[in-house]
Amino acid sequence: MAKNPVVVIAGLACETSGFSPARTPAAAFHPLRDTEIIEKYHFIHRGTPLGDAADWRGTLIGHALPGGIVTRAAFEELVGEILTRLKDICKSTPVHGLWFDIHGAMCVQDVDDAEAELLRRVRNVIGSQVIVSASMDLHGNVSEELAHQTDLITCYRMAPHEDEIDTKERACRNLVELLAEGSFPNRPLKARVPIPILLPGEQTSTRLEPAKGLYALIPEVESIAGVLDAAIWVGYAWADEPRNHAVVMVTGWDADVVTESARKLANHFWDSRKEFRFVAPTGSLEECIDTALQSKLRPFFISDSGDNPTAGGAGDVTWSLARVLSRPEFQHESGPRAIYASIPGPEAIELIVRAGVGATVTVTAGAQVDNNHGGPVTITGRIHAIRNGDRNAITEAVVQVGSVFVILTKLRKPYHLEGDFTELNLEPRSADIVIVKIGYLEPELFNMAADWMLALTPGGVDQDLPRLGHRRIRRPMWPFDQDISELPDLTPRLVPASNEQLRIH
């Protein structure tokens, strides 16, 4: 091409639990538009190799905190704006590429395969000749339709996702390099293998085997001549659509190479299925607390995993907090120093703000969204801290109840960073026990923890998948069906290019 190709950016991301009663509105996506999108991603700034290699045009992207199903109204509103902005760009210039910035596990009310539906509508505006490169979370889902609509597709290779930005940059680099070759309509070949495995992220962390070794195979595959990209999706365990399962895809120019490479990765994944274990020792909440109290290692972290807001939990399940506060060990200020993060309570926050730091208050919080596992909790304690202005929580407060410092929020918020605690005048490193609504510990918490257990608690992202009641996933599926006697068909299939007809298998 004589001048830089025009590349548009669009996408919506929300990891969605179909087992949470919460609903996700449009505002939760915190949409970015036009140049705000360019500003967000440093690797496409002017003066960088990628930034100077294309004319980047932002439409709209939205990244919501994981949560409940996206309302149909929210989806239509955001998609409608994306399409309008795309049409405006297409009126003034030819579009050569699209960076599809998604997560891959978004569920929308009355819409199956939401990301494929979004891309189908986008294709209706930009046409089938535009090259699409998608970047995804490895906990996303890749249906055959989504694989077909994209030309390049990749995902994270680490869980926790320390390579998120690297993955997005790789998707853009692959796109720009392909556009520079001007090789159309000879598009890359895509070999896809669906694998009948559906496991939670807490059993597939790349910190441990077998996921560590599985993902270590990707650089080996990519070093083979004729391969552009290799990707492994674990899938998203807490939704219930036919697309929810593991997938391997290899993209490249040599049909034999990409299919054989995809076969190798898929077979390794399937052969390892019985080796996947939780990333930390597990137990009931009571067992975890007992172990923490008996341990001399401090701080001792406990993951309250069933209501993890960064996996799609509503964040306001009170089941665990009620049990923590009922423990006799925590009834007095002189007891073991514990931190509990967190529970939303908008009305409680209003009372706390009016009372001020140092005051003693009685407030009620939680179970406004998910009351399937206990009702609201009423606590009486001294206000330790108040903080305003957080992007997610809006307002946060800490109330000391006995020896437990309970973090309350106006809106739900994940607590992943040490600063999330220290900004509330809490010192997690000095605490005896830190209980966090999370699954596997994010890097800062992991490095801080002297020891750690994962509590198998109830909620919208319950780790006990069979008791959630999946009805629409394809069966048989490991580990739902542990008596699978026949080897599944792991034959890689070449997915037709985006400008060719797809016949769903």
TrEMBL record:
Pfam families: DUF1485, MlrC_C
The Microcystin LR degradation protein MlrC C-terminal domain, residue ranges: 302-472
Domain Microcystin LR degradation protein MlrC N-terminal: 7-293
Name of protein: Microcystin LR degradation protein MlrC
Organism: Penicillium atrosanguineum
